[in-house]
Design a protein that fits this description.
The protein is mostly beta strands and 345 residues long. The protein is 4% helix and 43% strand. This is Choice-of-anchor D domain-containing protein.
Amino acid sequence: MTVFSLHIPQDQRRLRRSRWALTALLVMTTGCAQPQGGLIQPDPEPAIQLSAQPGTLVFSGTRAGTGAGASTVQTVTLQNSTDAPVLLTGVTFSAGTAFGLVSPPTFPLTLDAGASLNLSVKLLPGNPTGVLRATLRAVGEGAVGEVELAGLRAAGLEGDNEPPLAQIVDALDYKTNVGGTGLILGTGAGPIGDEVMAPLFERASSAPVTLRPVARYSPDGLSAYGTFVLAGDAARLQVLGTMALGSHQALNPPLVAGSQTTFDPGSQPFGIYLAANGKYPTQDTYTLDRLNTGSTRHAVRTYPLKDRAGKVVPNSYLLAFEPSANGDYQDAVFVLENVRPVAAK
């Protein structure tokens, strides 16, 4: 579970210990939102700054919103950290009806000192498809708290219904140029957009390396992934984790128990691979082209990660996998951190 908070600075909280003080917002989600933060400015009166880390909750679903296309549900907890009751008058969403609450409470309501209120939030079915953004506002008399929301609504499940890699990157709040906005990017061996040639990697610092699945748009099935090192012409594999059943058309797909998102690669260069599962893909897929035996030899495109402002995140990369032949490169998408690319010998 990822936990991130919005809080009132201590000096301002002392000045507003009253019935109308703003609740601190503590946001908890079962998904992995992206590591960007910043200051969120509420209404001019009162002049209270809220900090959010990260700044956006990310959802995914389909236009129909059923079965595997149902939205992820995330929980926003309103926490009254003051020593006096706070009156909450409601929760609103900007940008129309893209997002909503599951079993919302009845407002207005009073949140006692130290009490909390859980709100379940989801991306609603409907139109339009693509990337949708909104702001959730928790309103109390004389105070407003905000949380940014982003959603990726696909036309449907699999095939041409899937979202392009460019929309996936946008919904995750990255500004990386993946080489095109359409679903099909092509399977040529040359780099496109911000792509860099990165068949292997090495650790950039003594800290652990992080590998996180951030999107999966493929046929269903358990989907293992991990690292490999070269032993002569062969690859020696190390499984790190497995994406769960039923998570095949979603952002931030859940992992089975025991999966790792951090590891110590040692000093030897390593690559990343997506394992065959007997159905799809039918062969392992590697960041090193010469190891790929499927229809696509250049089966992984690697891009420097850029944050929401377009600034390159040091030693961080987006890995986009294409185990098949159509060239959409969003069958599995990972963020790899604390690494530098190295050439293969």
